[in-house]
Amino acid sequence: MATTTTPTLASTDVTSATKRTSPAPGDSYVQSFARGLEVIRSFSAQSPRQTLSEVAGRTGLTRAGARRILLTLQTLGYVESDGKLFRLTARMLDLGFAYLSSLPIWNLAEPIMETLVGRVKESCSAAVLDGTDIVYVMRVSTHKIMSIGLGVGSRLPAYCTSMGRMLLSALPPDQMMQVLQASERNARTRYTVTDLDELTAKIALVRRQGWSMVNQELEEGLVSMAAAITDRAGQTVAALNISGQANRTSAKAMQETMLPALLEAARSISERLSLQRN
Fold it and tell me: Of all residues in the chain, what percent carry a pLDDT higher than 70?
């Protein structure tokens, strides 16, 4: 039975640190606000509850600074404490839902993704690019396919994922190169491509053929394909993928039997998205 993942804030953190390609802070930069966000981001599936000292250590803030931010968040209802340990509250979900509700793709894609999963019997996800990572915004799963848990909000490195390469292929070449150079490009498996020139060539192929495949580069035994979701201007706004286990469906078999259905689903979502008014 296919399962549609609902948004969660503390999804599994699959990267040790998320590198950003944002511009340097300027005169309009509000440091106190940025520090508040750092405190929020210090909580994760691995650290759902933290002491004041742990929050200060993870964010680089003084204990006094971390305490002020935590107490402010507690007053606003985003953090709660038992007197020693702090944790995020369910109110944090409002922030995530605000983003998701602003995406017209949310309601348009779900039924199409569920239909696709019913056809190919493999899990399906949609993601957007954020810095050097992809961030899952939708997921319809049939069964667990990775050793880590994936859900809405989960992050994976763009360089070694099918959706990441699909999204990178839509960037201007200089911007794509900046993202690749900022990526850690670790060899996650014996198949992972980490060489910059080889990655650039693979992404160029994705751009030419209009779809992406990654075979056991993210995790051994995992194979996935991705296609682009575009808006009315033809700009890529997200990627759609199918993921499965190589011992059940080889990369070649997935391409031959599932690629047409994936491309059709991505095209259907794109067509519906193009009909939406801003």
Answer: 84
Q: Is the pLDDT of residue 106 over 80?
A: no
The answer to whether 211 touches 227, Cβ cutoff 8 Å, is yes
Q: Cα(43)–Cα(156) distance, rounded to whole angstroms?
A: 18
Q: How many CB atoms lie within 10 A of CB 204?
A: 13
| CA–CA separation, 168 and 177 (whole Å) | 9
Task: Output the pTM of the full model.
Answer: 0.73
Closest CA to 219 of 194, 175, 187: 187
- For the chain, how far is it from start to end, CA to CA, in angstroms? 35
Please report how the helices 31-41 and 52-59 are oriented relative to each other, as an axis angle in degrees rounded to 10. 120
Query: Angle, to 10 degrees, between the axis of helix 196-209 and the axis of helix 162-169?
Result: 80
pLDDT at 79: 95
Do residues 79 and 87 touch, judged by C-beta distance below 8 A? yes
CA dist list (Å): 91 to 43, 85, 166: 14, 18, 33
Tokens coding 148: 């880590």
Q: Which helix (H) or strand (E) holds 50?
A: strand 49-50
Decide if 160 contacts 188 (C-beta within 8 A).
Answer: yes
Using CA atoms, how far residue 113 sits from 12, 29, 152, in Å, is 22, 39, 14
Identify the bridge partners of residue 123 per DSSP, sorted by sequence position.
Answer: 243
**Helix boundaries (H) for the chain:** 31-41, 52-59, 63-76, 93-101, 105-120, 162-169, 173-182, 196-209, 251-275
Q: Which domains, ranges and CATH numbers included, belong to the chain? A: 31-91 (1.10.10.10), 103-275 (3.30.450.40)
